[in-house]
Structures are given as C-alpha cells and as structure tokens.
Amino acid sequence: MVVIEVMVVMIGKMVMVVVMVVVITMVLLMFTVVVMEVMFKVIVVVIMMVIVMMVVKGAMLVVMVMEVVGVIIVV
Questions:
Q1: Cα–Cα distance for residue pair 65/15, rounded to 1 Å
Q2: Ordered mean pLDDT values, 10 residues apiece, the chain (75 residues)
Q3: Which long-range contacts (C-beta less than 8 Å, at least 24 apart) are formed by 39-42?
Q4: How far apart are the C-alpha atoms of 54 and 21, rounded to whole Å?
Q5: What is the Cα–Cα distance from 64 to 56, expressed in whole angstroms?
Q6: DSSP 20-51
Q7: pTM for the complete prediction?
C-alpha cells in the first residue's frame, strides 16, 4: 500500500512539474510575442526616423549644391 501511495505522490509531483513547465512556457511565449510586437513597432519607428533624417540631409545637400552652383554661376 505504501508503494502505491508513493507512486501516486510521485505521479502527482510529476503532473505538477509538467503543469508548471507548460504554464511557464505559455507565459514566456506570450511575453516573447508582446516583446516582438513592441520591438517591431520600435524598429519601424526608428527606420521611419532614419528615412526622414536621410531625406532632410539629402534636401540640405541639394540646397548646398545649388548654392555652390549658384555661386559658381554668379562668379
């Protein structure tokens, strides 16, 4: 009888461990998905900012070139 009780306790502990692992895995997966979504949004914002910066720099460069060309033409 003692052996059976020990077996039941062992099985119970195993089940508890499995349930804990499953729950932890689910939480980690959800956390990972949320983090990935946030990271994706951050990356998109950063890329947009970089593109805007590049456009502004490009416009400034064009203006500078135009000014230089204008000066050369005037000279």
A1: 73
A2: 83 94 95 92 95 93 86 73
A3: none
A4: 48
A5: 12
A6: HHHHHHHHHHHHHHHHHHHHHHHHHHHHHHHH
A7: 0.45
pLDDT of residue 75: 65
Both tokens assigned to 32 = 């990972």
Residue the block writes with tokens 């349930």: 19
One-letter identity of residue 53:
M
As given in the structure block, the two tokens for residue 71 are 């000066």
Q: Which SS3 state, helix, strand or coil, does residue 3 take?
A: helix
Length of the chain, please? 75
Report residue 8 as tokens. 């039941």
Report the distance separating Cα 62 and Cα 36, nearest Å. Answer: 38
